[in-house]
């Protein structure tokens, strides 16, 4: 055990600001079975100073562990304590997969806008727009918005475009009928589409009439309509040019139509729309926008503490918080997965910081911790010519500009962050993995 490992282990038990050099050295060398005389000789400290520092250390550990701790028994007591914590955690571990449950302590709220979203739903005709790539927490936030709507007595309809056949997403009339049928099924209404669908008025107006003259009056209470993976229609320009303005028209109509005020929309997507739309017809410049960004240092510190690690956002290069920021770009899912894996190890870990660093060193290897997630992104890029050409430009010709579609396809996959029209690779480990495994 070196000095940093000793301090790392002590900091999981005692407040870090109570630690000084002599306490750490007494702890480290006592762990190796050395007496005060040897410790004084190896550290060049006065023997009485070493003994006094040790006495203070054992007293503080006794208080922290609620038992008598001495130089003779501290090591087996600590090993027993950590084994007990592994077997009986106050907070049961949850494997990171899908939406994090509403009551889970592992959900980290990231923006003030998230709190504002709960209030926004109460506004008549409101629209909340949630943007973020895969595994950034969109589903977890949505579950909280749905819970809020339920508590307010709303009807809730969840539309997921991942469940729609490609033939539906490429045909406006089929898409609007599919959405209308989904609404009826989830609010327990008889689907009377033929009573409102009129070929002469067109699919858009037929769907709107169906909604405001049949669905909303029948339920006579606020309806929360969530549309997940809205970006799946962006690739179908003809459908997007009609469907997206329709969502905007419902928002605009709510300003003067009391019936439409009962409709609240939550739109969930992974990238900005790259279909050319009149700014006055787009739903992406109205309502409350929430962009789910990576965790910052303070959020990662809070997350680590839930897993039982007292890691500070101190900016030190060896800090696991700094490592997660620099190596993983603060990616919520990857950071959760790494912390879960570390916390799942049984028994005493002398240096959680070192163990965490070693875990990340192997994470992108075949069968490593992140291999499944990285392989999926690799497959998606390989099958997407725009994403592939854009990534190749970023790696091989960084001065060459990317097309809009190249940027948005990479943003959708979570490979880049687009700021002021400029793409930037945001996850060093993922970028290196893709560079090593894609053919150039």
Automatic annotation (TrEMBL):
This is AAA-like domain-containing protein. InterPro entries: HTH_VMAP-M9 (IPR058651), P-loop_NTPase (IPR027417). It comes from the Bacteria. Residues 17-80 form the vWA-MoxR associated protein N-terminal HTH domain. It holds the Pfam family AAA_35. SUPFAM superfamilies: P-loop containing nucleoside triphosphate hydrolases.
């Amino acid at each position: 055990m070196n000095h940093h490992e000793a301090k790392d282990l002590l900091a999981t038990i005692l407040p870090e600001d109570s630690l000084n050099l002599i306490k750490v050295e007494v702890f480290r060398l006592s762990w190796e079975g050395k007496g005060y005389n040897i410790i004084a000789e190896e550290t060049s400290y006065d023997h009485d100073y070493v003994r006094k520092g040790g006495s203070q250390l054992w007293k503080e550990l006794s208080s922290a562990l609620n038992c008598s701790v001495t130089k003779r028994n501290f090591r087996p007591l600590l090993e027993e304590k950590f084994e007990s914590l592994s077997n009986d955690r106050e907070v049961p571990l949850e494997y990171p997969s899908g939406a994090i449950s509403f009551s889970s302590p592992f959900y980290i709220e990231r923006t003030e806008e998230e709190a504002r979203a709960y209030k926004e739903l109460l506004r008549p005709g409101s629209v909340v727009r949630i943007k973020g790539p895969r595994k950034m927490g969109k589903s977890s936030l949505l579950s909280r918005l749905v819970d809020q709507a339920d508590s307010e007595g709303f009807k809730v309809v969840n539309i997921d475009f991942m469940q729609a056949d490609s033939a539906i997403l490429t045909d406006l009339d089929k898409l609007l009928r599919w959405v209308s049928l989904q609404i009826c099924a989830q609010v327990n209404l008889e689907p009377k589409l033929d009573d409102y669908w009129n070929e002469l008025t067109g699919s858009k107006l037929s769907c709107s009439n169906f909604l405001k003259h049949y669905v909303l009056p029948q339920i006579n209470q606020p309806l929360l309509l969530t549309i997940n993976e809205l970006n799946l229609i962006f690739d179908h320009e003809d459908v997007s040019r009609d469907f997206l303005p329709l969502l905007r028209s419902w928002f605009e109509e709510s300003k003067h139509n009391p019936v439409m005020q009962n409709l609240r929309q939550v739109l969930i997507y992974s990238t900005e729309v790259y279909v050319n739309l009149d700014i006055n017809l787009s739903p992406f410049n109205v309502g409350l926008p929430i962009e789910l960004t990576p965790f910052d240092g303070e959020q990662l510190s809070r997350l680590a503490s839930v897993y039982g690690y007292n890691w500070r956002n101190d900016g030190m290069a060896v800090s696991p918080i700094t490592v997660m920021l620099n190596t993983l770009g603060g990616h919520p899912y990857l950071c959760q997965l790494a912390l879960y894996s570390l916390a799942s190890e049984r028994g005493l870990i002398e240096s959680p910081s070192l163990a965490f660093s070693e875990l990340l060193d192997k994470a992108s290897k075949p069968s490593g911790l992140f291999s499944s997630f990285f392989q999926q992104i690799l497959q998606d890029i390989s099958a997407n010519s725009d994403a592939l050409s854009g990534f190749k430009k970023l790696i091989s010709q960084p001065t060459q500009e990317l097309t809009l579609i190249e940027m948005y396809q990479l943003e959708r996959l979570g490979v880049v962050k687009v700021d002021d029209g400029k793409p930037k690779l945001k996850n060093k480990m993922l970028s290196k993995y893709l560079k090593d495994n894609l053919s150039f």
